[in-house]
């Protein structure tokens, strides 16, 4: 079998050989082809969108693909997650998907699966990718990967993120170029919050079938089983909620409580439609292809697709938020002497004209070093002020500083220099910069 | 248009330069960065919210673990109104999805209150249907305090208490006093919550 070449491939060759009217002036077909072959792509999520994305990527000539998913295959996935078969139920999505694609496509494609959470991997892991494509169902995971990529961009390594999402007949594609375009956190306030009902309505005046289900789920379960946490994946738990909700619905003359509605409400299930996933995954992979090859300009930077009332699509640019907590202030390097205490660091930062802090609180990603408020935490963390910084944090560990006078937070990467012993007459700290 | 085709070109050159730099770094023995965890958006928001709380002396916070800002106890000691003299601790749990999801509050003692049921669930609009990410922890804590200053008979969770409040405020006040002493109201015996 002849070696695969993107340039001569009948499906992607034409789009590489003819440069688009808005292509980079330096664009050459060979550059586009080489970029595809040399790129390393990370796919986050191997579910409904992930299966489509993996298939599209290998058929577009990408050869080094990594995929992460923490989930295992459920029988209800099989109708649309077409890389899985009945005998795969219970296996890791990432591993099963990789095996399937590698079996089918033999032209030197390497797919590396990881069965676990994105948070398991250190920041360094993400540095090596050309681009990340997300097919996720969780806001939390999107926020995490977004913050990680912004962090890498602050160190000079820009790894763009293409984020896809669907809900029934609707979907969206978004291109995030960390620190250059708006990030996921910039537009967090635009997210719709989960549909919730007032507790008093649930408790006293139910009118909808959902009110009855939420009553059984939110109020009755904790009352009857205070020691047992409700688990929506356990059939007998859902059955119990369903029975109780049905009883209450009859009591109030409400129709429409079914077992599938019950499952939908307690699991907060959004309907997944295979063809919407296909549309959005295709759009994500086209953006990845254009970005990596630079054969045409990429989406700037948000596309919505709505197929539930006829068809409507629109793209627009989400703007950067100046006071975004993630990309509004990037981590800055600060070098201090090894003998510095936490207090001295805070004094140094406070007097720098560009920061002007009044009452800073400081933490690492997992420990609070000094918190100005509430009183109890201030008392508990105050002894740290006298400790040497080098005993509190490791070299280059990121510090988060918040302050009432800062609309944003401040991130510092501290590096150490010089002796760990304080020189005998070093009263004048202003000499150290 | 923020990312026009011109900035797209610039971006592309930037990426190429970065690629060269990265190759150079690999030749020089890799990057010296440690693999420390990334500070999350939720963490930044919670730290700002907690350390910049503006609370009256009637609201106190107690943390069990100073490295865990996501779990704590809030105690409300109303200085006025029908619940004056009482001490009302609530457990608070902030999720990793904050501020997309509101924090969860449960009243720890069993109290007689129109908007709090016997399991400690609280009916406060900004805790559920009216929560917006733009609201902060301060707004919720002040909201909780208002429940004690102005119990609301129109959003009942304890129906008997709400009916009583709407019908006869004076009698309701007597029942509140009795319940706060640890006495019975109707069939239910409430917890003693008076400040000692």
Automatic annotation (TrEMBL), chain A:
Its EC number is 6.2.1.64. Pfam families: E2_bind (PF08825), ThiF (PF00899). Keywords: ATP-binding, Cytoplasm, Ligase, Nucleotide-binding, Ubl conjugation pathway. CDD domains: Uba3_RUB. One of its GO terms (molecular function) is ATP binding. Residues 334-417 form the E2 binding domain. Transmembrane segments: none annotated. InterPro entries: E2-binding, ThiF/MoeB/HesA, ThiF_NAD_FAD-bd, Ub_act_enz_dom_a_sf, Uba3_N, Ubiquitin-activating_enz, UBQ-activ_enz_E1_Cys_AS. It comes from the Eukaryota. GO terms for cellular component: cytoplasm; nucleus. Residues 1-24 are annotated as: Disordered. Its main location: cytoplasm. Pathway: Protein modification; protein neddylation. One of its GO terms (biological process) is protein neddylation. It is found in: Cytoplasm. It catalyses: ATP + [NEDD8 protein] + [E1 NEDD8-activating enzyme]-L-cysteine = AMP + diphosphate + [E1 NEDD8-activating enzyme]-S-[NEDD8 protein]-yl-L-cysteine. The active site is at residue 200. Catalytic subunit of the dimeric E1 enzyme, which activates NEDD8. Belongs to the ubiquitin-activating E1 family. UBA3 subfamily. This is NEDD8-activating enzyme E1 catalytic subunit. It comes from Kuraishia capsulata CBS 1993.
Automatic annotation (TrEMBL), chain B:
InterPro entries: Ub_conjugating_enzyme, UBC, UBQ-conjugating_AS, UBQ-conjugating_enzyme/RWD. The keyword Flavoprotein does not apply. Keywords: ATP-binding, Nucleotide-binding, Transferase, Ubl conjugation pathway. Coiled coil: none annotated. It catalyses: [E1 NEDD8-activating enzyme]-S-[NEDD8 protein]-yl-L-cysteine + [E2 NEDD8-conjugating enzyme]-L-cysteine = [E1 NEDD8-activating enzyme]-L-cysteine + [E2 NEDD8-conjugating enzyme]-S-[NEDD8-protein]-yl-L-cysteine. SUPFAM superfamilies: UBC-like. Signal peptide: none annotated. This is NEDD8-conjugating enzyme UBC12.
């Amino acid at each position: 079998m002849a070696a695969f070449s993107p340039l001569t491939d009948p499906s992607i060759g034409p789009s590489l050989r003819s440069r688009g009217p808005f292509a980079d002036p330096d664009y050459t077909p060979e550059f586009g082809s080489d970029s595809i072959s040399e790129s390393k792509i990370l796919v986050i999520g191997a579910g409904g969108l992930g299966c489509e994305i993996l298939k599209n990527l290998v058929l577009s000539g990408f050869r080094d693909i990594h995929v992460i998913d923490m989930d295992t295959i459920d029988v209800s996935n099989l109708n649309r997650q077409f890389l899985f078969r009945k005998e795969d139920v219970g296996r890791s999505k990432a591993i099963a998907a990789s095996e399937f694609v590698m079996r089918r496509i033999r032209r030197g494609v390497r797919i590396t699966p990881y069965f676990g959470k994105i948070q398991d991997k250190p920041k360094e892991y993400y540095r090596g990718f050309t681009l990340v494509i997300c097919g996720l169902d969780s806001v939390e995971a999107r926020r995490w990967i977004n913050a990680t990529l912004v962090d890498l961009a602050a160190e000079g390594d820009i790894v763009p993120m293409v984020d896809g999402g669907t809900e029934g007949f609707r979907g969206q594609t978004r291109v995030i170029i960390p620190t250059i375009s708006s990030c996921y956190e910039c537009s967090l306030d635009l997210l719709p919050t989960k549909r919730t009902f007032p507790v008093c309505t649930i408790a006293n005046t139910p009118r909808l079938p959902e009110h009855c289900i939420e009553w059984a789920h939110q109020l009755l379960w904790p009352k009857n089983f205070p020691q047992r946490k409700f688990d929506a994946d356990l059939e007998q738990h859902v059955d119990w909620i369903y029975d109780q909700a049905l009883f209450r619905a009859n009591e109030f003359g409400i129709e429409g409580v079914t077992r599938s509605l019950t499952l939908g409400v307690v699991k907060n299930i959004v309907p997944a439609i295979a063809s919407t996933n296909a549309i959005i995954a295709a759009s994500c992979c086209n953006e990845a292809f254009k970005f990596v090859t630079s054969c045409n300009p990429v989406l700037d930077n948000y596309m919505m697709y709505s197929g539930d009332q006829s068809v409507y699509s629109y793209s627009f640019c989400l703007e950067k938020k100046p006071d975004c907590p993630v990309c509004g202030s990037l981590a800055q390097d600060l070098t201090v002497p090894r003998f510095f205490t936490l207090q001295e660091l805070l004094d140094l930062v406070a007097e720098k004209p560009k920061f002007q802090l009044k009452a800073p609180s400081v933490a690492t990603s997992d420990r609070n070093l000094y918190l100005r408020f509430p009183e109890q935490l201030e008392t508990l963390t105050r002894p740290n002020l006298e400790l040497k910084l080098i005993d509190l944090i490791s070299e280059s560990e990121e510090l988060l500083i918040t302050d009432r006078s800062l609309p944003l937070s401040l991130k510092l990467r501290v590096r150490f220099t010089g002796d760990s012993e304080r020189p005998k007459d070093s009263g004048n700290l202003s000499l150290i910069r | 248009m923020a990312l026009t085709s011109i900035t797209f070109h610039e971006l592309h050159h930037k990426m190429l330069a970065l690629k060269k730099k990265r190759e150079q770094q690999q030749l020089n023995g890799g990057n010296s960065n440690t693999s420390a965890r990334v500070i999350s958006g939720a963490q930044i928001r919670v730290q700002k919210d907690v350390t910049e709380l503006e609370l009256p002396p009637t609201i106190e916070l107690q943390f069990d673990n100073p490295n865990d800002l996501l779990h704590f106890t809030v105690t409300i000691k109303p200085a006025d109104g029908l619940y004056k003299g009482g001490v009302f601790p609530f457990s608070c749990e902030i999720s990793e999805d904050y501020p997309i999801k509101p924090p969860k509050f449960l009243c720890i003692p069993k109290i007689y209150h129109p908007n709090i049921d016997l399991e400690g669930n609280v009916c406060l609009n900004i805790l559920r249907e009216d929560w917006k990410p733009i609201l902060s922890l301060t707004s919720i804590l002040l909201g909780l305090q208002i429940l004690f200053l102005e119990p609301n008979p129109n959003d009942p969770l304890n129906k008997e208490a709400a009916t009583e409040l709407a019908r006869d405020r004076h009698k309701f006040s007597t029942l509140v006093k009795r319940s706060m002493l640890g006495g019975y109201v109707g069939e239910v015996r409430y917890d003693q919550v008076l400040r000692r």
